[in-house]
Hints:
Layout: E1 9-11, H1 13-24, E2 32-39, E3 45-52, E4 60-64, E5 67-71, H2 76-79, E6 82-88, E7 93-98, E8 102-105, E9 112-114, H3 119-125
Parallel strand pairs: 1-6, 2-5
Antiparallel strand pairs: 2-3, 4-5, 6-7, 8-9
Amino acid sequence: MRNSRFKAMGLTDAAAQRVQEVIAAADRPIVGLRVGVRNGGCAGMSYTMEFADSVAANDEVVEDKGVKLLVDPKALLFLLGTQMDFRADKLSAGFVFLNPNETSACGCGESVAITPASPEAIAASE
């Protein structure tokens, strides 16, 4: 388990509150929310989230606003500087990733194109 000097990601108040609610309603003990990216979708990549039962040895552990995020080490450079939000309106509700590394997104909102963070961005966040 790694804890960096900087936060790879952050959460808005709305996202933190919603994550706390869904973890509290889970049917098993949850240590945090695992966040990552995977190849797929029309723009190339999609964000992933799942409950984590344990912390993996290489997880980047981010604690923000009472929530523990476990960032997949393969996704770290794609998620560096990302702010996770939760938005709800009359027709939908869901988590939104505000990622400075996104270069484009598909029209349906299910996938994005992401460029890994540059060495300059990494140095600036330390």
